[in-house]
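Changelog note: in this version the structure field was regenerated for every chain. One regenerated record is shown below for reference.
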Amino acid sequence: MKWLLALLLPSVVFSADPSIRGFPPETLPMEHKWEEKVRALPDAARIGRYLQRMSAKPHLAGTPASKAVAEYILGLMQEWGLDARIEPFEALLPTPKTRVLEMVAPKPFRARLQEPVMAEDKDSSNAGQVPSYNAYSGDGDVTAPVVYVNYGVPADYETLSKIGIDVKGKIVLARYGGSWRGVKPKVAYEHGAVACLIYSDPRDDGFFAGDVYPKGAFRPSDGVQRGSVMDMAIYPGDPLSPGWASEKGSKRLALSEAKTLMKIPVMPISYADAQPFLANLEGPVAPEAWRGALPITYHLGPGPAKAHFKLELDNSTHPLYDVIVRIPGTDFPDQWILAGNHHDAWVHGASDPASGAAPLLETARALSELLKDGWKPKRTIVIALWDGEEFGLVGSTEWVEKHSDELKQKLVAYINSDSNGKGHLGVGGSHTLEGFMQEVARDVADPVTGKSLLEQVLADAAKTAAAGPASFRITALGSGSDYTSFLQHLGIASLNVGFGGDDAFGGIYHSDYDTYYWYTHFSDTNFAYGRALSEVTGTALLRFADAPLLPFEFTRFTATVNRYVDEVAALEKQPNHPDLSPVRAELEKLKDSSAAYEAAYSRALPHLAAAPAAKLAGLNEILFRSERAMTLNAGLPGRDWFKHRIYAPGTYTGYGVKTLPGIREALEANRPDEAASQAADVVKVIQNLNSEVQQAASLLGAL
């Protein structure tokens, strides 16, 4: 069994060239020694035990059960001899008081709004199952005809308009998919709807895709996807404290002042509860692409199905418990590396988030063992287990807002993980770290094939490459996990890492069936990929912490942004397209500066070991603050919390990234003056970055 061999043997260096960016040749043997240990130490069985313990009970943020999970994590860290503490916050964390959904015409039907117990899965019967609801919904008591709106994205309403269907005064029924869930009620409200229902169609994650739970991995008829509908494209975190930390006694906005709360009631339902409404719609037959897998003809309405929907939330403030661990650095203690995941869940959360949190715990244990063996990181390592992520990245955002000044000065990079499955390595993040992650992937083994992760990634890329050799590329980050505040608010280089693609996580996403039983039957059943994630994280942390020269690189970044400019230039919606030649001209200068930096790096590498610590500290500070150069204090139009001019979540995509977001969204919305202004801002940030790269090259040359 290949996977067992990979679990028992330490990972090896797969490249014929064992060089590691930022490490001079004489430091490599010691670095390889520590890396081999940090990759050999993670234990799959331990990861399984952490996951089982964290997912044993429902532990929604703000509840005593979530605090208990935080205390469990704290206890482990302290047992391993690490400096750990809980840092508390408070935030608006709504829970439902009243949920009623019924069809009042043409025939009576009352929605169940309950996920039934599965006899095979004992955890599905646990007390404390979280009701199916969408956090940050508006309250309401409405009765109105129903209209089916497909995925409920702006393009779907354009289609309805062409057909002659108006949703004003109606209850819209949208299916999950096509965009982040919070976009659906937002767009519904903008078109005059009085309420929004979101259901999971079996075509997307139910029986059309495969056998349903518990026989298979996919969503059963009564399964429901909970989730936040906070308008995170404006700002994440506590809706009542935008830009400042929400702590006990701190100031808070009134509910009426919060910009990220939905204006209409919205609730998720199962496809069993949705089918009677869909079956009793008339009007035009839905376009073919809109038709799901239920055994009905999909009509659009409106009516004759008429729904009564009543929803009331308890909009109370509740506590959050972030677990923070610090391993002090020796040479550069004021340069920090941070790795994080979250510990809160909508219900049990075996896959989301324990599958990623458990490997991070095992990484922390591995680092504690290295410390006992005499290893001391040159830079400070921080490990965080966030609370409140599921509500809208609340625990991480409040922590970032509290410590923003210090983080801007000290934080080198943030490494995020979230859910972890089986399959292929996925990496998103800052493209100044693309080469860094390629080397990490080169040096960690795939637990099934025994090949390097890099070989696996390149083999996968080769299958879809249009022409030429496949290359290692990381994706741009939008939102949806705890990297958002670090990257897009503070301008801290960030990575999001995990495995997936070979399981059916969407089938139980945010449901009561995201349990240890589901995970050990249908996902990373032996925790081999959890172990691999721990190896990736441990390797990355050691390299960031111990490299004499930080591994930032700018040639790939420049090439990537040039591709983004080409994409924006190809947009045809806007006849008065802004002049992008100044952006291209600055990128050409950055290309030259990046090449000069690489030449200086090659010349300086043999001399780095003898370089004075003070000079290296100053040079490294320029390097890690290069991501800050891509931000502007003014922020993006209409959402000034988002400062980054290269990456941002889309206003109407939610999680989905918009690259060069200011220009792209202005063009898509036919705002030519704004597009031109945003293009000028991109020129400005590229100039700022170019200045940093030139300064770094000059200092490196002086070594």
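Spot check on this record: Residues 555-702 form a domain with the Transcription Elongation Factor S-II; Chain A fold (CATH 1.20.930.40). Residues 1-16 have pLDDT under 50 and may be disordered.
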